[in-house]
Predict the 3D structure of the following.
Amino acid sequence: MARRQQTDDVVRITTAAANRADDIRARQRRYLFSMSLRTLCFVGAIAASMAGIDWLWPILIAGALVLPYIAVVMANAAANLSDGFRLREGDFTRRELESGSHREL
């Protein structure tokens, strides 16, 4: 029987990475949403200044200046699917189940 090395990293299906194309598509959507929100902030700031709402337009301009940084960070953030549980180290030298002929009633 071949022995398995104890240093192998086990990949569980719940922590497996998503398809690369799907990951890129999701990042692009997040970036596009954030940049659309930035555009709305600029347009809203112009509309607020023209309407005479002097307290609103500086907030919208500040939001439009901060959103590119947030958009880039969100777009580059990789999904971390770690569930926080470590698998037990197994003893692969002994059998787990006994054969049916040794059962006691």
Summary: The mean pLDDT is 76. The helical segments are 20-51, 56-76.
